[in-house]
Amino acid sequence: MANNWLERTELLLGQESVKKLSNKHVLVIGLGGVGAYAAEQICRAGVGKITIADGDIIQPSNINRQLPALHSTIGKPKAETLGKRLKDINPNIELTIIQEYLRDERLTQLLSNNFDYVVDAIDTLSPKVFLIHDAIKFGHKVVSSMGSGGKLDPTQVKISDISESYGCPLARILRKRLHRLGIREGFKVVYSAEKVPEHAMKPCEGEPNKKTTIGTISYMPPLFGCMIASVVIRDLLA
């Protein structure tokens, strides 16, 4: 590349750390309000190889919070749209784009590959449990996003081991499901204990793994995504 676009990153981290990140491979599954921002910040930090996966297309209701969602991109695949953006940030990135919902054997097959970190930004419970369980089974480091919907206060967002999370309904249910599978700790979550107001929730129709739709403000999912990226980058450099 003609210019050193990572000059400011190198000034902060040092040349060796930048080189270290360029040799890492991160998997991001779920490219909605949280996952797309996480993937972009991981890309901008100089991680050299990223795999992104999501089977969804961009909807008008995504525009209030999701990175690739614009009026000009409505109806386009999320993974492919975000992939073009990541390649525009770093043309030299080794990028794998998976435009599909990953389930069961397909997900297990993907996780059998070598990843330095796995980002779970799935917003439905059953696939989330399956991803975390299998990622840990294969020995991957994992960071998982809990619910950013219905939250307004950024100062209440926290990072902790899943065993130390509290006040988040999704984290509580996730802990319960994972306990049945023998997993009680060992991966980080980004969550908020801020209470979701009743008026911000309505029943969700047409999605078997999702019972409610929760109102969301523009800045909270990106904040979760940025905090997830911070976990990945700091752990990769540790």
Automatic annotation (TrEMBL):
Domain THIF-type NAD/FAD binding fold: 12-234
Pfam family, one: ThiF
GO biological process terms held by the UniProt record: cyclic threonylcarbamoyladenosine biosynthetic process
UniProt-recorded Gene Ontology molecular function terms: tRNA threonylcarbamoyladenosine dehydratase; ubiquitin-like modifier activating enzyme activity
Entries under Gene3D superfamilies matching the protein: NAD(P)-binding Rossmann-like Domain
Entries under InterPro entries matching the protein: ThiF/MoeB/HesA, ThiF_NAD_FAD-bd, Ubiquitin-activating_enz
Protein name in the entry: tRNA threonylcarbamoyladenosine dehydratase
Organism in which the protein naturally occurs: Tenuifilum thalassicum
Source lineage: Bacteria, Pseudomonadati, Bacteroidota, Bacteroidia, Bacteroidales
